[in-house]
Design brief:
This protein is 49% helix and 7% strand. The strands form three sheets. The protein has a two-stranded antiparallel sheet with strand order 1-2. A two-stranded antiparallel sheet has the order 3-4. Helix 10 packs across helix 11, helix 10 crosses helix 13 and helix 11 crosses helix 13. The chain is mostly helical. It has three domains: 64 residues, 2-Layer Sandwich (Dna Ligase, domain 1), CATH 3.30.1490; 80 residues, no CATH class; 147 residues, no CATH class. The N and C termini lie far apart (120 Å).
Length: 351
Amino acid sequence: MTAKNARKSSVLKKFIIAFVLVIVIALGLTGYNYYQKYFSPNVTANQEYLYIHTGATFSDVYKTIKQQNMVKDTDAFSSAAQNMNYINRVKPGRYHLHEGMSNRRLINMLASGTQEPVTLSFHNLRLKEQFAGFVGKKIEPDSAAILNLLDSTAFVKQYGFTTENVYTMFLPNTYQLYWNTSPERFFKKMHGAYEKFWTGERRAKAVAINLDPIQVTILASIVDAEALHDDEMPTIAGLYLNRLKKGMKLESDPTIIFAENDFTIHRVLSRYLSINSPYNTYMHTGLPPGPIMMPSINAVNAVLDYQKSDYIYMCAKEDFSGYHNFATNMADHLVNAHKYQEALNERNIKH
């Protein structure tokens, strides 16, 4: 081989080697960029959850992620999202973020709508307005949206309720639901739990005391308001059932407090008894039109499994233990009432 050919061969080899090196470097850079874009840890620990509201666009999601510093490299996230066509697959929800998540894992979670449910636990909320406010802090719909349905005659009628008694549908318990649950779906879920609770056995017990599930719950709300101790609930329930059977007014102090809408009242005086309200059980016979609070399940069961007795009167014990003195006649009741009134006076409790 001539020197000239040798030089040409050497130049060609160097060119090929350089070309291969350029390709390798280019592939390496491409691979590195690909890894950085899709598989490199990118999610920060700044926020535990990403909330995507109903109707949000990718622009909204990107803005939230950027403003709250949810990822280290927002440009990489945006590029990956566009390449993975996430911009056309935005789903509302509450998404749990984990530090070190890659863009690919994050985007797959968001695009598939794989959100973490919200745990909703409620009990002893006195008013449905309070209930709506509590729920509105836990899920996307605000309290006004929840309350609008509770106050909609046409809507609650679909489920067999009125706006007065619809609050009996909500049973204190722990529930799981998605953050972006609509008010309608929330209502449907709660009604499903209500139907599940009211088994054939419980409905049969209600029929046996001439009440329906709504009436049982209304009475249970009175029992719960009267009872400080759960073990006394069946006795109180039996007393009120005796009054209903006899056609007597229930004359329950908690119903007066509810009618007055003043829950600071500790002593129901005679001047309160003339309030013109369907919840005034000193004025009206029978049950009020709706519950005076959200009763516990124990209170509902206490009505269904009431303690049989001849009691028709009760008065708080003078020792302020939270228990009651029960009586079958007015004379004994007046003695009990006098002892309690004296105890109130001694403690200077005037109202």
